[in-house]
Amino acid sequence: MENWDEQTIKAFRKDLLTWYDQEGRAYLPWRVDHNPYRILVSELMLQQTRVDTVITYFNRFMKELPTVQDLAEAPEEKVLKLWEGLGYYSRAKNLHKAAKVVAFDLKGEWPESYDDLLALPGVGPYTAAAIASIAFEQVVPAIDGNFFRVFSRLLKIDDDIAKPKTRKVFYNAVEPIVDPERPGDFNQAIMDLGTSYMKTVDPDTLHSPVRKYNAAYRDGVEDQYPVKTKKKKPVLQRYQALVIYNEKGELLYEQRPKTGLLAGFWTLPLRPIDSIEEIDGEQLSIKPITHVFSHRKWEIWPVAKAVPTELKEGQRFLSVEEQEAIALPKVQHKILDKLKEQL
DNA sequence: GAACCGTGGGG
DNA sequence: TCCCCAAGGTT
């Protein structure tokens, strides 16, 4: 691991921020000001999600719920509808809870320190540091995937970034490097660097504004950084989806459990099967609907069934209007698309 | 500390 | 088709 002296650190900050001022993504909608509410919403949306995807959601969200008070007072269903399709829906629920804490418990007074921000629901070490530095100029490194990648290469840090304890290694290494004058810009500059010259695949280090600080590039081992163990591949799960219409043409839905995958969302009733031979009813499709989550892969066979004599707990018929009014997970939209296709 | 939690894009 | 990934947090 490299160890920079004070002179190198100062030169690095200057080169980084000079580049950031000229070529950073100042146009991103959450960078127009340092409003902590806008920063909070953007950071929650950006967790494990690409910038290009988030921009549209962010602008719509801000138009509908411009202030933390608006969000705190909004019904959860509205928040989820604005989040529909973004995934990791606990983020939306936590964002809603955090807004209530700030607007009601704290009476609109924002927590400004890293530790106080960390106490908000959905706000972990990275997000707390991002908000503290960007909105409140607190001098803390916002260590996300970009930060890991950039500094693993610059400093040749060999620790596995998939391991939780590695965060401390990086924190100790980079804490002295964060610019005390412009901590928020420093962190955002690292992110911009990490998605441009120092991106994961096919980086362009030769033209990077901080090439001369890049120890991995210097030693010709840049492709070995960051060190990161691979994720396990999703496990296949087969279901049959019960397609049941009532006399009004409404479709039977079932609410998922309050915890776990797609918690609380409505989908067609899904029944686990071990093989397609177990399908019980009129098969509506020759090919299954497949949907991949981060750790599971669903294979779904739609099956027509008769109208039940009475509804079970957690079941109800939904009209088309009702289906469009509530947030549905992507996999349910895929099922609906397939059903339309069959007609 | 490992497993869980969504989705879409690109090679 | 499959694999990897992308501004992580919670349990």
TrEMBL record:
Superkingdom assignment: Bacteria
SUPFAM superfamilies per record: DNA-glycosylase, Nudix
GO biological process: base-excision repair; mismatch repair
Keyword Disulfide bond: no
InterPro entries the UniProt entry points to: A/G_AdeGlyc_MutY, DNA_glycosylase, HhH-GPD_domain, HhH_base_excis_C, HhH_motif, MIG/MutY, MutY_C, NUDIX_hydrolase-like_dom_sf
A molecular-function term among this protein's GO annotations: metal ion binding
Cofactor(s) listed in the protein's UniProt record: [4Fe-4S] cluster
HhH-GPD domain segment(s): 45-196
Keyword Repeat set for record: no
Stretches assigned to coiled coil: none
Documented EC number(s): 3.2.2.31
Annotated function: Adenine glycosylase active on G-A mispairs. MutY also corrects error-prone DNA synthesis past GO lesions which are due to the oxidatively damaged form of guanine: 7,8-dihydro-8-oxoguanine (8-oxo-dGTP).
Similarity remark: Belongs to the Nth/MutY family.
Protein name: Adenine DNA glycosylase
